[in-house]
Amino acid sequence: MPMPDGRSQGISWSVGFFAVSGVVEIALGLWEAPRPLAFWPVWEALGRGLLYFLLAAGLWRRLALCRSMAMVYCLATLVTYGVVLGLALLRAPVAFPTSVVVESLFQVPSCAILFPYLRSPRASVLFPRPLFGP
Predict the structure, then answer these.
(1) Using CA atoms, how far apart are residues 19 and 49, in angstroms rounded to an integer?
(2) Which residues contact 127 (CB under 8 A, 6 or more apart)?
(3) What does each of the 134 residues of the chain score in pLDDT, given as a tens digit?
């Protein structure tokens, strides 16, 4: 269903997912950083979150490259966090940081929903803009 500005809800949900992922990445990075907070852990957390925001901005602008990057990200997330969740469920003798558990619980279901949309013919029509050019 088109929104008032011509974007579909799928684009809005995709942008929202990556924006929330950026906030979660920054928050968990700061939460797990040693106290008192030093410059480099904060810088690293902000840098990791910024990548999500850049991808969200590219999706908002309907760049085809960003759609492809989002699909690759979703596939990588499903495989990586799927293995992590499988190891956790099988009670593997591995200690998982809190950030990995929280991110996997958020990103696996989200990517499982988002990936089929990004792959759909409808989404390919909505992301026509090349990275460079008109």
Answers:
(1) 9
(2) 59, 62, 63, 64, 66, 67
(3) 455 455 578 788 889 999 999 999 899 888 988 888 888 989 998 998 999 999 999 999 888 888 889 999 999 999 988 887 788 788 778 777 788 778 888 888 899 999 988 888 887 788 776 656 55
Spatial CB neighbours of 111, under 8 Å, sequence gap ≥ 6:
73, 74, 75, 77, 78
What's the chain's Rg over C-alpha atoms? 17
Domain boundary assignment for the chain? 9-124
Which element (helix H / strand E) includes 26?
helix 9-32
Nearest Cα to 52, choosing from 79, 13, 24, 31? 24
Exposed / middle / buried, residue 123 (Cβ in 10 Å: 0-12, 13-18, 19+): buried
**DSSP structural state of residue 63:** B
Instruction: Name the β-bridge partners of 63.
Output: 129
